[in-house]
């Protein structure tokens, strides 16, 4: 075989390897949490990546694993992960604070055999991409005024009722 | 003949309504104290304003008539129908102020859903809702589940008149104790026992799973109340799915069953008499109902081939049939999955379970197992009579606290209420379709609202049309009162017109 021929075969082999298995094919699909719920049948068993806010707390599961619920645009999903993966999360969303934003990569289960047939995600990787923050309260003094007026009305009504009762008692 | 309502009647109605509204205002002290203890200052102001409005308005309304004014049965029906509406109107105020509802109508939807123990929700960003607001949403389940009027009877009307009229008007006809006030108190006693047991068990579970002590106890109390009172709200947007726990499902299954039991049966069990449990027609009907529908749902879920084992199918199937049959509405599936992933037989069986409902004189909604049982026995008697010689006398017997013969008027009453429920289910579904939703999901949602269940296919959301929100509010209200009180109210409102024509 000539040198040109050998070079052609090597180039062809390289092209076959590169083109038949493009780098992006192994990447998990990037989705929203809402998509996972809407397209659960289609995504069942595939690896996806999504971002959302960790809410509530890490709930102890079986063995050395926990459940972290991740909220994205009003839809939350349970993510099952090892203990040490969840330890990266410092804040969980609640009334007083927003939770850390986490980027989760994991396998979607339409009806998880390990977890009673629930729709869930088993995490393979987790990255904290944003820190949670305290949420501020907005106090409205007008509400205090409305309440005070209501209680004042109740007091006045009680006085009127008492006077009427006394009058009725005196008449009888 | 239409009853002419005098000015004194109207005053008496106003006084009792005022009492109920004050009751709602006083009840707001619980979320107010919760807010103060947990340093949630903005919600504390919401409840201060809400309580002030309710107590102020109720006090003024009570001036309409003197103390101990009598209340006849007809006026009792009006007070009950209006009482539930007024309670929802005032209970919605702090929710509307919370900023988690798109409008006051959404907050009213939430309070009606909560009081009637339906469980459909329009709350936004539930996962960041204050503990005080969650306390209020679940406390309304508790009060509504026992009956707002029962609550007032227990505490406010102990020595006053009108107790019997109000008790009967709220759709309760059981006399467990010699008088209705003691009966109302027994209902609260039973509830307290189950709430204590449920809260203790779920608190322990939450603590073991890593929740903080306060949060574990609050979540446990809310889940217990929402389950025993067959309400179905949850403090997280995923509802029961948030917990990812078989133990949670098992404990709430027990609470759902306890919640759907007739309070007379609870009394028998409490007295140590368990025979009634096995003889009672209503218990047998409900057991048969749950068994057949669980098999159907499980078969429907299995047919999708999504589940890996029969155990998973049974767990999902039984939990959702119980949730639907008892009117609780907890779900461990996402709302859209009912339509998208698990439609077909399972979907139909859940709709039937919601439509049939739990037991009479319990916290459950729907047609009720006793009526379904009586209609079934009526059909059997009818077939037997058709096959028997003309001279034969065919009677149907049933057991409900004692052995009875099925009388034609009992059957007529059961058929009438069942028909009214079906008409309400169909009407709501038609309005849903008119609003642009598909037929299956419109039927599902309508049945869920009218039977006070709370399962959803996703139609119920802040973005649904206002007309549909109002429709579901009316359905929840009518379903909880089993129609009679609501019809009495409509008749009373139309009475000036009808009465004039009749003359």
What does this structure look like?
Chain A is an alpha/beta fold. Chain A has helices spanning 3-20, 33-38, 40-43, 83-86, 141-171; strands spanning 29-30, 47-60, 65-72, 75-82, 101-109, 120-130. Chain A is built from 5 helices and 6 strands. Chain B is mainly α and 503 residues long. Chain B has a domain at 1-173. Helix content of chain B is 68%, strand content 1%. Chain B is built from 22 helices and 2 strands. A two-stranded antiparallel sheet of chain B has the order 1-2. In chain B, helix 6 (131-146) crosses helix 7 (148-155) and helix 19 packs antiparallel against helix 21 (466-481).
Task: Give the tags.
heterodimer; A: 172 residues; alpha/beta; OB fold (Dihydrolipoamide Acetyltransferase, E2P); 5-stranded mixed beta barrel; elongated; B: 503 residues; mainly alpha; two-stranded antiparallel ribbon; 22 helices
Brief account:
The complex is a heterodimer of chains A (172) and B (503). By secondary structure, chain A is an alpha/beta fold.
Q: What's the gyration radius of chain B in Å? A: 22 Å
Return the structural class of chain B.
mainly alpha
CATH architectural label of the largest domain in chain A: Beta Barrel
> On the 0-100 scale, what is the average pLDDT of chain B?
90
Strand order of the largest sheet of chain B: 1-2
The CATH superfamily of the largest domain in chain A bears the name: Nucleic acid-binding proteins
Helix/strand order of chain B: HHHHHHHHHHHHHHHHHHEEHHHH
Poorly predicted segments of chain B: none
Largest sheet of chain A: 5 strands, mixed, barrel
The helix count of chain A comes to: 5
Quote the distance from N terminus to C terminus of chain B.
10 Å
Shape call of chain A:
elongated
Shape of chain B: globular
**What is the quaternary state of this protein?**
heterodimer
Mean pLDDT of chain A: 89
Estimate percent helicity of chain A.
Answer: 25-40%
Specify the structural class of chain A. Answer: alpha/beta
The CATH C-level name of the largest domain in chain A is Mainly Beta
The helicity of chain B comes to 55-70%
The H/E string of chain A reads: HEHHEEEHEEH
């Amino acid at each position: 075989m000539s040198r040109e021929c050998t070079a052609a075969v090597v180039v062809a082999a390289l092209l076959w390897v590169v083109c038949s298995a493009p780098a992006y094919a192994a990447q998990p699909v990037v989705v929203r949490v809402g998509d996972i719920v809407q397209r659960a049948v289609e995504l069942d068993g595939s690896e996806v990546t999504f971002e959302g806010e960790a809410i509530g707390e890490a709930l102890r599961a079986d063995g050395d694993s926990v459940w972290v619920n991740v909220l994205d645009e009003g839809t939350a999903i349970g993510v099952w992960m090892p203990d040490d993966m969840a330890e990266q999360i410092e804040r969980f969303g609640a009334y007083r604070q927003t939770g850390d934003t986490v980027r989760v990569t994991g396998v979607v289960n339409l009806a998880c055999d390990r977890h009673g047939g629930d729709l869930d995600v088993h995490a393979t990787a987790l990255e904290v991409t944003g820190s949670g923050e305290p949420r501020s309260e907005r106090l409205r003094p007008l509400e205090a005024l409305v309440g005070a007026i209501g209680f004042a009305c109740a007091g006045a009504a009680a006085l009127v009722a008492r006077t009427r009762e006394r009058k009725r008692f005196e008449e009888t | 003949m239409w009853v002419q309502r005098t000015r004194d009647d109207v005053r008496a109605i106003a006084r009792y309504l005022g009492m109920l509204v004050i009751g709602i205002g006083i009840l707001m002290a619980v979320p107010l104290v919760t807010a103060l203890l947990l340093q949630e200052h903005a919600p504390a102001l919401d409840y201060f304003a809400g309580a002030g409005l309710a107590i102020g308005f109720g006090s003024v309304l009570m001036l309409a008539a003197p103390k101990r004014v009598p209340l006849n049965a007809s006026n009792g029906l009006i007070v009950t129908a209006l009482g539930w509406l007024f309670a929802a109107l005032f209970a919605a105020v702090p929710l509307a102020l919370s900023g988690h509802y798109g409008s006051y109508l959404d907050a009213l939807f939430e309070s009606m859903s909560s009081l009637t123990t339906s469980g459909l929700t329009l709350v936004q960003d539930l996962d960041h809702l204050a503990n005080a607001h969650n306390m209020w949403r679940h406390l309304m389940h508790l009060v509504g589940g026992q009956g707002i009027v029962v609550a007032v009877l227990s505490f406010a009307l102990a020595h006053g008149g009108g107790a019997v009229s109000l008790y009967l008007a709220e759709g309760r006809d059981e006399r467990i104790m010699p008088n209705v006030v003691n009966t109302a108190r027994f209902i609260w006693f039973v509830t307290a026992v189950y709430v204590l047991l449920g809260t203790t068990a779920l608190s322990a579970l939450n603590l073991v799973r890593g929740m903080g002590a306060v949060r574990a106890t609050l979540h446990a109390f809310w889940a217990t109340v929402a389950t025993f009172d067959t309400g179905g709200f949850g403090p997280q947007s995923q509802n029961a799915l948030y917990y990812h726990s078989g133990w949670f499902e098992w404990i709430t299954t027990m609470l759902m069953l306890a919640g759907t039991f007739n309070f007379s049966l609870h009394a028998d069990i409490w007295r140590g008499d368990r025979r009634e449990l096995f003889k009672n027609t209503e218990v047998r009907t409900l057991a048969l109902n749950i068994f057949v529908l669980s098999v159907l749902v499980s078969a429907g879920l299995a047919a999708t081939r999504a589940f890996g084992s029969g155990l998973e199918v049974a767990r999902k199937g039984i939990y959702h049939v119980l949730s639907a049959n008892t009117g609780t509405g907890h779900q461990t599936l996402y709302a859209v999955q009912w339509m998208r992933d698990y439609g077909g037989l399972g979907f139909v069986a859940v709709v039937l379970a919601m439509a049939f409902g739990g037991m009479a004189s319990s916290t459950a909604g729907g047609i009720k197992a006793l009526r379904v049982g009586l209609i079934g026995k009526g059909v059997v008697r009818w077939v037997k009579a058709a096959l028997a010689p003309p001279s034969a006398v065919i009677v149907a017997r049933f057991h409900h606290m004692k052995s009875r013969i099925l009388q034609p008027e009992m059957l007529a009453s059961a058929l009438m209420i069942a028909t009214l429920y079906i008409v309400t289910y169909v009407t709501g579904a038609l309005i849903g379709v008119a609003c642009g939703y598909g037929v299956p999901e419109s039927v599902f949602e309508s049945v869920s609202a009218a039977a006070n269940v709370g399962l959803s296919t996703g139609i119920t959301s802040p973005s649904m049309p206002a007309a549909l929100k109002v429709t579901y509010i009316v359905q929840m209200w009518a379903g909880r009162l089993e129609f009679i009180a609501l019809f009495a109210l409509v008749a009373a409102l139309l009475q000036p017109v009808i009465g004039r024509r009749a003359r």
